[in-house]
Amino acid sequence: MSGFEAFVYHNGELFVENVSLKKIAEKFGTPCYIYSQSALTNAYQQFDAAFEDRDHLICYAVKANSNLAILNLLARLGSGFDIVSGGELQRVIRAGGDAQKTIFSGVGKSVNEMRMALNLNILCFNVESEAELITLNHVAQNMNKVAPVSLRVNPDVDAKTHPYISTGLKENKFGIAVDEAMRIYQSAHLYPYVRFTGIDCHIGSQLSFIEPFVEASEKMLQLFDGLKKQKLDIEHIDLGGGLGIRYNNEKPPSIKEYISKLCSITRNIKQRLVIEPGRALVGNSGILLTRIEYLKQTPARNFAIVDAAMNDLIRPSLYDAYHEILPVEKNTIEAKNYEIVGPICETGDFLGHDRKLSIMDGDLLAIMSAGAYGMSMSSNYNTRPRAAEILVVGSQTHVIRQRESIEQIIAGEQIIAY
Ligand code: LLP
Fold it and tell me: Where would a tag sit more exposed on the chain, N or C end, judged by fewer CB atoms within 10 A?
């Protein structure tokens, strides 16, 4: 794991900060997500410190983990937020986040979402098409407001990541080509209820190399210079999120290296730098704790059937993503290779393949690096209640989301009268 180590073994037993995971499982049950406040705080502070005295705003990408307690912690640390829906905006406000530090990304903002965001006076809309700009101008006009806007540019850069989470190639649905963006900025007079305040890009997620960030930032800088020549002054440059974390043997740039690079590329401009990190803030601050229901041997394989499943953590099934799987208690049983699978009725329901583990029925396993895109992508498939979420602060445990009940799952459903 990179950076701060919140999950460590003491005498063969895995702890989060000062709390034993075994105790958490006994007290709150499994499966559950567990987050370390220190790890999250540490990651935020690493980002913040790396900017040194450069004017900047860190807008945490809420989609990575949108629990109110996580948002509240980040808001207290001074973070802004990057949202992609009206729902996420409501979460930010409920959690005590500042609308004036909130930017709104996404290709399909609805009129209602635009209204909500304009009412709350958010910092900026990252607009992704001319059609969206026309709609936003119209919505703002009806509300007698002026919408602050960055155009999200598609710099046509290969982020060298999984194709599902690569967003900065011209084939992707995201952003506006650089030339096209230039033309739209120049036609500002057509949009009297819009004020262009920034430029924005985001090229993908889980980036393990610095080069694509460099390439995209340089293209943004060229655009910035082009705008300046046209006397189009903007207030900020948003370079998106996307910094990868170590799940297995990736070697992504460190937070410091990444931020220092962005600062150095843009050293000649005084405008504020905005970034939208999600995963690099929360990914390695959280785990998914699960208990082995059964060990099952078939003629071909050994299976460890656990009580967490693809509805709790879909990343392995969806992206073939690797999450390290650790035993909560080390023991001396003979190690075997296991398929770690959930109870869901699909062969695609797995959390890990071919993992060498010394385990027995009833043992606890920690699925590592699950703080980002874990709970926020969970579902009720197979009518499985969503897991509880626990935040650990030193020696204290706080339930930050109760385990869901079956009653809650079916509450909105209705049998029709015949
Ligand atoms: N900004 C925008 C506009 C984004 O679309 C995203 C992520 C981010 C920022 C934050 O990216 P990050 O720093 O977390 O890489 N579900 C996938 C990841 C999807 C990312 C979508 N956009 C996964 O589990 O790997």
Answer: C
